[in-house]
Specification:
Oligomer: single chain
CATH class of the largest domain: Alpha Beta
Radius of gyration: 20 Å
CATH architecture of the largest domain: 3-Layer(aba) Sandwich
Largest sheet: 5 strands, parallel
């Protein structure tokens, strides 16, 4: 397969994790699974994406692979003490749900398709303040998002919703709003709620008059029964 962005190397001895990742693999994505023993035998090549099970593999054994990979995902049951020294990546607690694996595969498919040696890749520089969001505890991360991001983006308050695939709702996880907000939003084919529409489109939505803009698009604005819904607002899907 020529598209390296879809080539994922999973290193684990956990047969359940391997089966779960394989079950939700898109048909056109390439997954290679190695056990730690196979890895030590020299079976690995430089992957574009390295998904590492920290329960079974020492990061020292795959240091070269981790640094060469464009993306890294770390699975763990109990976070090891050396986690903070690992190259930047996404930490996923086991066992994880189908929605998490599906999102990981979706992200794997949207990477750059340009094939270049690792030594030719320029490092991606991000604003220093973004480093504050490298947080493993979900409630803490949600709190940081609603208390820090609004001011960074020019807004006074914010709310963060998480999708519950079993209940099919966007549920309020954290808010810094000093006004009523939606506690949950039903996600279904008939929904015209602005949150659902933005999630479907996958693109941020900005308006200086939320109620007016939503009406023009045939959407239901957030907290539409509250006068503050007319304020400028940003709705952004976070994947």
């Amino acid at each position: 397969m020529s598209d390296k962005s879809k080539q994922v190397l999973l290193i684990t001895d956990d047969s359940n994790l391997q089966e779960f990742v394989e079950r939700y693999r898109p048909v056109d994505a390439c997954l290679r699974c190695l056990t730690p023993r196979q890895l030590l035998a020299g079976a690995a090549t430089n992957p574009d994406q390295c998904w590492l099970d920290l329960d079974h593999v020492s990061p020292d054994a795959v240091e070269r692979l981790l640094h060469a990979a464009q993306r890294r995902v770390y699975f763990y049951s109990c976070l090891p003490a050396h986690a903070e020294r690992l190259p930047m990546g996404l930490f996923i607690r086991k066992p994880c749900g189908a929605a998490v694996i599906s999102v990981l595969w979706a992200a794997a498919e949207t990477g750059s398709t340009e094939s270049r040696p690792a030594c030719d890749r320029r490092p991606v520089r991000v604003p220093a303040w973004l480093l504050d969001f490298q947080e493993l505890d979900l409630p803490t991360l949600c709190h940081k998002c609603v208390t820090t991001l609004p001011r960074r983006l020019g807004f006074s308050e914010g709310a963060l919703y998480l999708y519950d695939p079993e209940q099919r709702v966007l549920a309020l996880a954290e808010t810094s709003c000093q006004r009523p907000v939606d506690l949950a939003v039903r996600v279904d084919a008939a929904s015209r709620h602005a949150f659902v529409q933005v999630a479907r489109d996958g693109e941020p939505f900005v308006s200086d008059d939320m109620r007016r803009t939503c009406r023009a698009r045939g959407w239901l604005p957030p907290s539409s029964n509250h006068p503050n819904a007319d304020q400028a607002a940003l709705i952004a899907p976070l994947f």
